[in-house]
Amino acid sequence: MRPEPSTLAGPAAPALREPGAILLISCYELGRQPLGVAVAGAFLRRAGFAPAALDLSVEPFDAARVARAGLVVISVPMHTALRLGLRAAAQVRAVNPGTHVCFHGLYAGLNAAWLMEHGADSAIGGESEGPLVALAEALTAGRPAAVAGASVPGRVAPPHLARLDFPAPARELLPPLARYARIERDGRFDLAGSVEASRGCRHRCLHCPIPPAYDGRFFVVPAEVVLADVRHQVAMGATHITFADPDFLNAPTHALRIVRALHAEFPVLSFDLTTKIEHVLEHRALMPELAACGALFVVSAVESLSDTVLAHLEKGHTRADVFAALGILRQAGIALRPSLVSFTP
Question: Which of 2, 33, 131, 210 supports an S-S bond with 119, CB 3.0-4.6 Å?
Answer without folding.
Answer: 2
